[in-house]
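debug: dumping io for the single-chain case to check the tokenizer round-trip. Nothing else runs in this session.
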Amino acid sequence: MIYTTKNFWEKTADTNNFLNKNYLWIARWGKNTGDIPDINSYPPLPPNGYSIKDAPDFWQFTSKGQVDGITTDVDLNLIAKNIWNEYISCYNDTYET
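debug: decoded output
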């Protein structure tokens, strides 16, 4: 897994080499209000020069999130649906409802 900021990724990464082998986790906070952003108005990566294969698997969208039981701000992330489905399928036998 590669964890980086949007700016560092754009300036230094060889996307063809990395994305074929690793998950991409981008930290891009925008307004950083703690609220879940509208990904259509503020996507984790800009559309210029990127294809869907370059979309991050994980997006850290704020460092000011709130979670019950934790008194300080926390980082919050969104996960791509296909990655979540892969994760859940590993535990399907254990956590049947």
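debug: round-trip ok. The longest strand covers residues 58-65.
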